Amino acid sequence: MPDVSIQSPDGSFGAYLAAPASGKGPAMIIIQEIFGVNANLRAIADKYAAAGYFAIAPDLFWRQEPGVQITDQTEAEWQKAFQLYQGFNEVKGVEDLATTLSFIRQYPGVTGKVGCVGFCLGGKLAYLMATRTDIDASVSYYGVGIDKDIGEVSAITKPLLLHIAGQDGFVPPDAQNAIKEAVAGNFLVEVHVYPERDHAFTRIGGKHYHDGDAQLAHGRSAEFLAKHLG
After folding, report:
1. CA nearest 129: which of 157, 151, 103?
2. Is 72 a catalytic residue?
3. Is the pLDDT score of 195 beyond 60?
4. Domain 4-229 has what CATH class?
5. What's the rounded Cα separation, in Å, for the pair 122 and 204?
6. What's the rounded Cα separation, in Å, for the pair 198 and 230?
7. Which is the catalytic residue, given 96, 168, 198, 213?
8. pLDDT tens for each residue of 78-92
9. Under 8 Å CB-to-CB from 99, ≥6 apart: which residues?
10. Per annotation, catalytic residue among 59, 96, 147, 199
11. How many CB atoms lie within 10 A of CB 162?
12. What terms describe the molecular function in GO for this protein (predicted)?
C-alpha cells in the first residue's frame, strides 16, 4: 500500500501503511529502530497486516532527514544511525506517535482498538506511549533508556508488555533491575526476560538474532495483543 502523509502541528510526515486483507479491524503502530522505516520494519508491518491489523509505521526522523532507510550491515550505516539517534527529540517523537494514533483511529476500516510495538529506540517510545497517551496496548522490545523515565510507571493506564534481553549491551543490569523493580506488582505490566540474549535478538539478519527466542517473544506479543485489542 502506498505511504500516507500525516499532518502534525509542526508539519507533515510520511508513514508506511499496510492494510489487512479484510479491509477492517484493529490497528498497530510499528515504531522504528534507529535505522528508520527500512525494509525490515516494513516487513514487520506487513506481518501484522497479514495477522489482521492495519499496521502503520511513521517516519520519526523526518525532522532531521525524511525517508531514512538504512540497515545494520555496514559501519557507515551504524554511524549514521547513531547520529540520527543523538539528534532525535524524544518528546517530539512521542508527539508524532500520538498524532499517528489519532490518524489511524480515524482511518477508514479501523474498527477496533489501537496498539503499538517498538524495537530498540522504538521500545523506549512504546513505553512512553503507555505512560503519555491513551493507546490501548503497548509492546516494547529491548527498549533503550526506559530506566531514565521509570518514574512514569505510575501513569500507565493500559496494558504494557516488556521484552528484556538479559545480556543487552545497551541496557546494563542496573537499568534492567530498576525497570523490573519499578513495575513489580503493577498488574498492567507484563515482563519477560530472555537471560542469554543480547540486544536486538529478534532483528532478522542482525548479529544477535536468535530464532528460538525471537519466535517465543513474538508468540507472547501476539497473545498479548489478541487479548487486549481483540
Report:
1. 157
2. no
3. yes
4. alpha beta
5. 16
6. 31
7. 168
8. 899 899 989 999 999
9. 6, 7, 8, 9
10. 199
11. 23
12. hydrolase activity
Return d(Cα 171, Cα 164) in angstroms, integer: 9
Q: Hunting for cell 533503550 — which residue is that?
A: 144
Return d(Cα 116, Cα 112) in angstroms, integer: 13
Q: Please give the helix or strand (H or E) that residue 190 lies within, else none.
A: strand 189-194
Residues 53-81: pLDDT tens digits?
A: 999 999 999 999 998 999 888 899 989 98
If phi > 0 it is left, if psi is from -120 to 50 it is alpha, else beta; for residue 63 that is: alpha
Tell me the one-letter amino acid at 58.
P
Question: How many Å apart are CA 228 and CA 159, to the nearest integer?
Answer: 7
| Domain extent listing, the chain | 4-229
Contact 161, 182 (CB under 8 A): no
Q: Is the pTM of this model over 0.90?
A: yes
Nearest to 112 by CA among 7, 6, 226, 200: 226
Residues in the chain: 230
199 catalytic per annotation: yes
Runs of H (alpha helix) within 10-68: 39-50
